[in-house]
Amino acid sequence: MGAALGDVLGFAAAVAVSPLPIIAIVLILATPRGRLNGVLFTVGWILGLAVLGAAMLAIASPAGASARSHPATWVGALKLALGLFLVLFGARQWHRRPKDPSQAQLPKWMNALDRLTPVKVFALGLALAALNAKNAPLTIAAGAAIGSAGLPVGQQIAWLAIFVLIATLGLLVPLVVFLLGGERAKTTLGSWKDWAAQHNVAVMAALFFVLGLKLLGDGISVLAS
Predict the structure, then answer these.
(1) Which of 171, 165, 125 lies closest to 142, judged by CA?
(2) What are the tens digits of pLDDT across the range 50-101?
(3) Per-residue pLDDT reduced to its tens digit, 171-217
(4) Gap between the Cα atoms of 190 and 118, Å rounded
(5) With helix as H, strand as E and coil as C, how does the chain read?
(6) What is the rounded CA–CA span in Å between residue 17 and residue 191?
(7) How far apart are CA 125 and CA 132, in angstroms?
(8) What is the CA radius of gyration of the chain?
(9) Which of 70, 100, 124, 151 has the greatest number of beta carbons closer than 10 A?
(10) Can you tell me the distance from the alpha carbon of 64 to that of 184, in angstroms, rounded to the nearest whole number?
(11) Which of 49, 61, 73, 76 is nearest to 152 (CA)?
């Protein structure tokens, strides 16, 4: 059980350091309605992670994710599939990274952040958490790890809440800095955005490659036992 819950913390930390959501919230905070939209974006993100994680728990519990505190065979197969996806995704991202970090370009949709309504900003946060190809596999893996730990329902919910909280730190830190830092916060957040934009692809490629190998190993271990 301890190893599974340790994996949950690792997955949460990986989601928390995703550069694109961090860049997005910094850009949102710089818009005229930055205070409101920043909060809505974060709430959407939290809801997206919580819903996806809860859905995985709902599937895992009745499907028998654990047998005598040992992960079920289908959990091993799921981890194997997720691990393979992340390894291939990480390798693809690494191959596509810009040779010169200063030449890195942000996704085109970020140019429209200052024109989004509050509802669309909320929906964006929801989508980046629950539908993003980088974050969704990690959230699914975390839900599977919690479901396979043999915990009572209340403790499963508590661990999911811990996962969501840690996974949201990457957004909460810029939001708190903005709300409390005043004008000085703009310079700090701007430097964070520039660094994240330049190293986004390389950071995520290395992160997902390592986590993918970890999931592959876990999946093989479950299936072989």
Answers:
(1) 165
(2) 999 999 888 876 555 555 556 667 777 887 888 888 888 888 877 777 676 6
(3) 999 899 888 876 677 777 777 677 766 766 777 777 778 878 877 88
(4) 22
(5) CHHHHHHHHHHHHHHHCCHHHHHHHHHHHCCCCHHHHHHHHHHHHHHHHHHHHHHHHHHHCCCCCEECCEECHHHHHHHHHHHHHHHHHHHHHHHHCCCCHHHCCCCHHHHHHHHCCHHHHHHHHHHHHHCCCCCHHHHHHHHHHHHCCCCCHHHHHHHHHHHHHHHCHHHHHHHHHHHHHCCHHHHHHHHHHHHHHHHHHHHHHHHHHHHHHHHHHHHHHHHHC
(6) 16
(7) 10
(8) 18
(9) 124
(10) 52
(11) 61
217 vs 225: CA distance, rounded Å:
12
CA distance 38 to 175: 7
Q: Which residue has tokens 């396979």?
A: 148
State both tokens at 197.
Answer: 């934009």
The pTM (predicted TM-score) of the whole model is: 0.77
Nearest CA-CA partner of 190 in 23, 69, 31 = 23
Measuring CA to CA, which residue among 220, 207, 172, 216 is closest to residue 11?
A: 207
In the block, residue with structure tokens 């819903």: 51
How far apart are the C-alpha atoms of 223 and 212, rounded to whole Å?
Answer: 16
